[in-house]
Specification:
The complex is a heterodimer. By secondary structure, chain A is mainly β. Helix content of chain A is 0%, strand content 53%. In chain B, the strands form two sheets. In chain B, strands 2, 4, 5, 6, 9, 10 and 11 form a seven-stranded mixed beta sheet that branches. Chain B has a four-stranded antiparallel beta sheet with strand order 1-3-8-7, with no helix packed on it. Chain B is an all-beta fold. The chains are: A mainly beta, B mainly beta.
Chain lengths: 111, 114
């Protein structure tokens, strides 16, 4: 079993739709969690950190469920520019901040 | 403030050749990392460094060596390139703040080994 698992998709949604991605992690001792965005042939960029209380940044909402060991990303009112691959990242909080990346979920937003 | 830069952006090697990839960051970050990303797959950690003069192995270190002689630079070496090392290589850095392990990535180096 992979340490971090994501539904690879692809998710194809129309503009304005709401879409949600889930990510599960296997190590219950994991400390910090992130969502990154990666555009085609580009480097990953931090989208948002995920806190236990949940957090929101504009159209994006991230949630953490430690009991079930999953994190989620909700995108409301999808834009064409949201088309990208979304990477779930889990960090143990120890050992030099080594992070484990999921393989990513691909989102395509269509007109 | 350039962030994280990588040199070169593209490279084609023949099997058995050697090369060094350079990563530089101007954010005064303590931690630096080298990843590879194969098509349709996630990032896999090759080597990392928690500070100047220190390096450690990641998930897939075989065939690679690294050095961090200066805090701002992290070099990745391939001594004898193999076709299996064809990949996109990303460097990243992270501040050494408690609980703050977000990483900032360079634009990547696309390496093809024939």
């Amino acid at each position: 079993r992979k340490e971090v698992e994501q539904d690879p998709g692809p998710f194809n949604v129309p503009e304005g739709a709401t879409v949600a991605f889930n990510c599960t992690y296997s190590n219950s001792a994991s400390q910090s969690f992130f969502w990154y965005r990666q555009d085609c042939r580009k480097e990953p960029k931090l989208l948002m950190s995920v806190y236990s209380s949940g957090n929101e940044d504009g159209r994006f909402t991230a949630q953490l469920n430690r009991a079930s060991q999953y994190i989620s990303l909700l995108i409301r009112d999808s834009k064409l520019s949201d088309s990208a691959t979304y990477l779930c990242v889990v960090n143990m909080g120890t050992n030099a901040g080594k992070s484990t990346f999921g393989d990513g979920t691909t989102l395509t937003v269509k007109p | 403030n350039a962030g994280v830069t990588q040199t070169p952006k593209f490279r084609v090697l023949k099997t058995g050749q050697s090369m060094t990839l350079l990563c530089a960051q101007d954010m005064n970050h303590e931690y630096m990392y080298w990843y590879r990303q194969d098509p349709g797959m996630g990032l896999r950690l090759i080597h990392y460094s928690v500070g100047e003069g220190t390096t450690a192995k990641g998930e897939v270190p075989d065939g690679y060596n690294v050095s961090r002689l200066k805090k701002q630079n992290f070099l990745l070496g391939l001594e004898s390139a193999a076709p299996s090392q064809t990949s996109v290589y990303f460097c990243a850095s992270s501040p050494a703040l408690a609980g703050s392990y977000e990483q900032y990535f360079g634009p990547g180096t696309r390496l093809t080994v024939t």
